[in-house]
Specification:
11-stranded antiparallel β-sheet; 2 helices; 162 residues; globular
Amino acid sequence: MKKVLIFLFCMLTLTMSAQSVTKTSHKKAVKTDVVTTGTMTVRKPDYICISTDGGKDQLIMDGTKFTMTMGGKQHVTDSKKNAQFATFQAVLHAVINGKPIPEGEDLTVTTKNGQKTITITPTGKKRKLFTSFVLTVDAKTSAFKVLRMNGRKEDYTEYTFK
């Protein structure tokens, strides 16, 4: 079944436009960052797949469902149940579809040098996988430039799109 899903994913990737991406994983405790490359596939209205390291690491948003595979571990959540991802999902949906960025108390938008920087800092006392999300997009075309997911203790994962 897993091979069939990978085959279907590859076929869909070939039929859609893909954008190159470089992923940088930074861990404060490790001296050297891990850098891998891959592709980002966007399918409207609300599907994004960022695949790096030959498909071993993936970040997928399919509607309200988020699936993250990193280091052989898979994490699945839904923005309907996980408030941390609710604003993130709404912002990604707006950017993909060329809609205005939704307002929220955990969200700031700044525009400078033709780029919009959208910072999402989830509130609440619950233990969070990420302390903030920072998405930089082209102000005119809404093309993704950088997605940075900040973790605890100065760790982060950053995707740079080309």
